[in-house]
Amino acid sequence: MTDLYTSLKNPNQLFFLTGPCVVEGKALLDEIASELSRLREKYQVPIVLKSSYRKANRSRIDSFTGIGDVKALELLKNASEKYNLPTVTDIHTEEDASLAAEYVDILQIPAFLCRQTSLLVAAAKTRKIINIKKGQFLSPDSMEFAAKKVTDSGNSQVLLTERGTTFGYTDLVVDMRGFPIMNAFGFPTIMDVTHSLQQPNQTSGVTGGLPHLIPTIASSAVAAGANGLFIETHPTPSTALSDGANMLPLAELEKLMIQLINIKKAVL
Q1: How many CB atoms lie within 10 A of CB 98?
Q2: Per-residue pLDDT, 1
């Protein structure tokens, strides 16, 4: 078991997976990673730099998908080394697993792909930490079987992430009962705050969002037993190349972290 996973399993310690939705370039990644490094040192909480090296699940064919796989992964690795931050990124195919594992610490399985056995097995075999997002169409109980695919493949380093449940065609809701249910499986649980506030299937073909509710969902999840928070952030969400409609402005991250750390202390 890696030292990183051991720190994420600490039930008394809140942790954060945060960063831009997608790697847009070196300057942006440096700006965000520098701030995350400062916050980690100031508040002494584990922080993982999150960013997708490629966005495969897009509403429209002309949506931004990335700057190039290897280029983006190299930028993530460089930021990790420069700011001493572990990293997490999404994978979508079995081939992605072995490629991304060369550059990052945690491989993330997107919600739509959480039942893809071959992908889970390939990810497990890299021996990296595997973060499985719960599908918008699955119950919390079903995530036990997704996790078992990884552990049965010889990898016990699993994280389980709630990201909302489909409610009608253009909304998501979060059932906070999912945290005690998934906590019982023995793996750290995470609330994907920003994606659970998406409003998909808009007529424009661009996903909307409700970012003003980020503190509400995040606070509720910590109170319900979440071990970590997944929060996408950007200095100027309105200019973000992906998912800007539901991201937290970087300048607001510290205030929210303080609030969440205090809630965690109150419920221990």
Answers
A1: 15
A2: 55
- CB 200 within 8 Å of CB 136: no
| Overall number of domains in the chain | 1
Six-digit token string for 265: 């202390």
Q: What is the pLDDT of residues 210-268, one digit of tens each?
A: 999 999 999 999 999 999 999 999 999 999 998 788 899 999 999 999 999 999 999 98
Q: Where are the beta strands (DSSP E) in the chain?
A: 15-19, 47-50, 87-90, 106-109, 129-133, 158-162, 165-166, 172-173, 189-192, 198-199, 208-209, 228-234, 248-249
Mean pLDDT, residues 75-95 taken together: 98
CATH number at residue 15: 3.20.20.70
Report the chain's mean pLDDT, rounded to a whole number: 94
Rounded CA separation 162/189 (Å): 8
Q: How far apart are the first and last CA of the chain?
A: 25
Domain containing 229 equals: 3-267
